[in-house]
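subagent[fold] <- orchestrator: predict structure for attached chain, return tokens only, no commentary.
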Amino acid sequence: MNLRPRLLVLLPVCVAAGFLVGRVFWQPPQGPAGQPTSPAPEQPLAAALTTVPDVRLPDLATATPRSLREWSDKALIINFWATWCAPCRKEMPLLEQVHQQWRDRGVAVVGVAIDRLEPVQAFVGEAGISYPILVGDQEAMGLAEAFAPDLPGLPLTVLAAPGGEVLRQHVGEIHAEDLDQIVAVLGELAAGRIQAAEARTRLAAD
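subagent[fold] -> orchestrator:
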């Protein structure tokens, strides 16, 4: 006896029966008052800060809390570092040179130490660093991660326009050639020869 015609007839019946059984026994997750609930939406990735916030950290020299916005009248180089970070220590003399050459020409350098007070004091004294250093621990780390949510490690350098608009984040050690290009752009921005949009484009291309 040929079973193929019978199987062809039974196949749609089985499929239909399976669908009906599934509809009977499957129920969507129920929320309050028996209402079906929707799947939980995926959490959005944290967005990096676009402007310099009014976060206050103690100044190393005076122990007085200071805000990064105190330098909002200048183009700003914010350098996050720690004494235990070798690349951080290596780049700081270069940042000191920028500070000496540009502090009266519209570009400010501010360090943010993610570290304890004592080792920061010792290193800054030995290295002869004179630009402002703000010191924090968890709060400073939280600030760094707000600027760069996927921060893999230090150093981190944030570049901002006068007024506080963030232009770029640079993760990793800054070399002399990097700083030359950065300062050339920030200097033009501070002098009013270019606008923030052009500065951002040029910094992104470097």
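orchestrator: received. Logging for downstream: The chain has one domain: 56-205. Residues 56-205 form a domain with the Glutaredoxin fold (CATH 3.40.30.10).
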